[in-house]
Amino acid sequence: MSHTIRIGRWTAELYQRAIYLQKQPDPHCRDCQGNGEVAYGPGLGPFGEEPDIQPCPCWDPYRSLRIPLWRKPAPDGWPF
Ligand SMILES: [Zn+2]
Questions:
Q1: 37, part of any domain
Q2: Position 59 in a domain
Q3: Number of domains composing the chain
Q4: Is residue 24 domain-resident?
Q5: What residues make up the domain containing 36?
Q6: Separation CA 61–CA 36 (nearest Å)
Q7: CA of 26 to the centre of ligand 1 (A)
Q8: How far apart are CA 70 and CA 80, in angstroms?
Q9: Per-residue pLDDT tens digits for 21-47
Q10: How many whole angstroms from 52 Cα to the centroid of ligand 1?
Q11: The whole model's pTM is what?
């Protein structure tokens, strides 16, 4: 279970042990109109005529920044 916070083009997914930051597609992108996908010509795959859907160059869906969460040091004077 996680919570997601959006700040502009960035999303932060909050997990118990880490936070993942990821840049989202540019909402004003002329290539993908903000949905993050671009279709290239007829594909060469098994279905031949279908366009090849690729992530738009305005973002990288496989790249995120992971921030591990550690215990904070106890404040001065705490007995443990
Ligand atoms: Zn785009």
A1: yes
A2: yes
A3: 1
A4: yes
A5: 3-68
A6: 8
A7: 6
A8: 16
A9: 999 999 999 999 999 999 887 766 666
A10: 15
A11: 0.67
